[in-house]
Amino acid sequence: MASNPPAKCCTIGVKHEGETTGQSIKVANKHDAYLARPPAEKAHKGVGILLIPDVIGIWDNSKLIADQFAANGYLTLLIDVFNGDALSLNRTGDFDFMAWLTKGSDGKNPHTKEAVDPIVEDAIKALKEEYGVEKLGAVGYCFGAKYVARHYKNGIQVGYVAHPSFVDEDELAAIEGPFSIAAAETDSIFPAEKRHKSEEILQKTGQPYQINLYSGVEHGFAVRGDPNKKATRYAKEQAFLQAVTWFDNYLLLM
Questions:
Q1: Which of the residues 42, 145, 177, 214 has an alpha carbon 20 to 30 A from that of 188?
Q2: Could you give the C-alpha distances from 141 to 6, 91, 138, 149, 159, in angstroms and in order?
Q3: Candidate list 10, 142, 151, 163, residue with the active-site label
Q4: What gap in Å lies between CA 205 and CA 99, rounded to an integer?
Q5: Which residue(s) pair with 139 in the sheet?
Q6: Is the pTM here over 0.85, yes or no?
Q7: Distance of CA 9 to CAs 39, 84, 95, 190, 220, Å?
Q8: CA separation for the pair 216, 139 (Å, rounded)
Q9: Is 226 designated active site?
Q10: Annotated active-site residue in 32, 54, 67, 187
Q11: 243 CB-contact burial (10 Å; exposed 0-12 / middle 13-18 / buried 19+)
Q12: What sequence ranges are listed for the domain Dienelactone hydrolase (predicted)?
């Protein structure tokens, strides 16, 4: 793998403050989603972003991030890829993460690629057919990173991921457009050896790529980091600017 499977660290973090401005919608009349629209005067016509979240799914933090992308001119669709079975923040007690991934909380709702891929495909279709998106970027946090890499073949043109998990080497090698990574200094899911291997793979793709490493932060910082910690707040803000700048240069100007 180019990054390790998700683990308990993927559920730990801090809920952020702020008022969300988007709207809850359904995609394909069945998938929960959150749509953040840009102000008319800033909107990039025909350009959109698919946001594939970490295992906490659609919640305040991920909605606020979608709103931030919209504030920068990007129509943003945040999709529930867990079929209503996202995890709670800072859950306590013993938890079998791999059982949840393979079977879901009730044993009948898996979160494998066979289950998630069709949801991502429906979201891409909705952005293109219902919202007029012609230039499509995608953002993936932790769990979501895998599905950014997997779906260039289905219409994603430019990708950005932060503290990725569960990305297979062949998935990363198959990307067909620019790919940017924001990485944490301390991250058992995406440690130094995985970063270096990812760099080797990305070099061979011939696509534009970027790997930014943020010191003093851990896995999850870009979504669930504590803004009261100076290093974490700085890294979170810079990682978001990394994403916007990446899309401004490789999506808008393509």
A1: 177
A2: 11, 19, 10, 12, 11
A3: 142
A4: 34
A5: 51, 160
A6: yes
A7: 35, 21, 12, 12, 8
A8: 23
A9: no
A10: 187
A11: buried
A12: 32-250
- Sheet holding 23-27: strands in order across? 23-27, 31-36, 75-79, 47-52, 135-141, 158-162, 179-186, 209-218
Among this protein's residues, is 96 annotated catalytic? Answer: no
Q: Using an 8 Å Cβ cutoff, are 30 and 211 in contact?
A: no
Name the residue among 211, 213, 167 with its Cα closest to residue 186. Answer: 213
Give the pair of three-digit tokens for residue 192.
């130094």
Contacts of 111 (CB under 8 A, 6+ apart): 81, 82, 83, 85, 100, 101, 102, 104, 143
Q: Is the Cβ–Cβ distance between 246 and 49 less than 8 Å? A: no
Residue 167 CA to residue 148 CA, distance in Å, equals 9
pLDDT digits (tens, 9 = 90+) for 145-169: 999 999 999 999 999 999 999 999 9
- Catalytic, 67? Answer no
pLDDT at 9: 46
Chain centroid to CA 210: how far?
Answer: 16
Dist. CA 252–CA 203, nearest whole Å: 23
Q: What is the pLDDT of residue 6?
A: 55
Q: Identify the segments of the chain with pLDDT beneath 70.
A: 1-16, 92-93
Q: Please tell me the total number of residues recorded for the chain in this structure.
A: 254
- CA angle (42, 45, 46) in 5-degree steps: 145
Q: Tokens for 168?
A: 């297979």
Three-state DSSP class for 88?
coil
